Amino acid sequence: MKPLVIGSRGSQLALIQAQLVIDNLKRKFPDLDIYTRVIKTAGDRFDTHPIGEIDQRGIFTKEIENKLLGGEIDLAIHSLKDLPVELHPELVIAAIPPREDPRDCWISLNHPHPSCLQPSAIVCTGSPRRANQLLRKRPDLRIVPIRGNVESRLKKLKENREWQGTVLALAGIKRMGLDLSSFLWTPLGDDWMLPAPGQGALALQTRIDDKYTQSLVKCLNDFPTACAVYAERAFLHELGGGCRTAVGAKAQPEGSRLILEGIWWPEEAIQPKEGKIVGEMQQAEQLGKKLADLLKKL
Question: 0.90 exceeded by the pTM?
């Protein structure tokens, strides 16, 4: 078999995610030689800058996609929420494996839930989506920006005693097997925090004409996860969203149907628009577009 070269970011979480894919491929193809190439992205180089100050879409994916387009790697592994909704025309998502828990997680040294915070408490997050949803429930909170990987954010939270908590993706915490015994933490329900579209899912990306690599990874695709993610991404795309946009979405498969919830803050809006819609799983993208259209009319 022809060797497979995989491209990934170099963070601990990214490499763990790449290894999950490699392990699953090796179980299916034990004779397949797989090599990993670590690629530094703009988001990694400018990890102290607020995301809004980095004028580039795909800040965690563009350099990896360029290596894929140039033939230096055969397969790119992305956290799907980082992948722009408009893909390069020569690239395709060839598989989406089963999703990890998509919820966000509250983490604090002293407070078990953001509802327990004192007025004017400081919460650190660099995500407009997370900040807006926290402030919607607790408009008295003070939000300060934070960047960096999971480990560095937890380290900063421990070191800065003025910060009362932060919010991280539960999927990353689970995949890394992090010890949170020195923190108080709890997953946030949908009433507090809808996740980013695609959160908890991985995207396995290939060149559109690379049928060999596509044939290898198609066995890793999980149909219900893919449908849920495509509904969420279609919702985001229809709203013109990216990492600077306050958009949350969660699609839940139930039998042959999807239940899609979404929340969106139009630019400079104080109050969000939100809604829920149910439709057939086979019509996932149309479902996402329909919910976005409904919210636009509110």
Answer: yes
Same domain assignment for residues 92 and 15: yes
Closest to 150 in 3D by CA, of 177, 187, 114: 177
Closest residue by Cα to residue 130 from 87, 177, 173, 170: 170
User: Parallel, antiparallel, or unpaired for β 273-280 and 122-124?
Assistant: unpaired
Residue 172 parent element (H or E): helix 170-176
How far apart CA 99 and CA 105 sit, in angstroms, is 16
Tens-place pLDDT, residues 179-229: 999 999 999 999 999 999 999 999 999 999 999 999 999 999 999 999 999
Structure tokens at 53: 């100050």
User: What is the rounded distance in angstroms from the CA atom of residue 113 to the CA atom of residue 98?
Assistant: 28
The CA distances from residue 229 to 64, 196, 197, 210, 215, in Å, are 21, 10, 7, 23, 21
CA distances from 197 to 97, 103, 260 (A): 15, 11, 11
Q: Tens digit of pLDDT for each residue in 30-66? A: 999 999 999 999 878 765 555 554 445 688 999 999 9
Residue 67 sits in the same domain as residue 120: no
Domain around 63: 1-99+201-221
Residues identified as active-site? 82
Give whole-number Cα distances, 156 to 109, 141, 146, 185, in Å. 12, 19, 9, 16
Report if residue 228 sits inside a domain: yes
- Is there a domain that residue 196 lies in? no
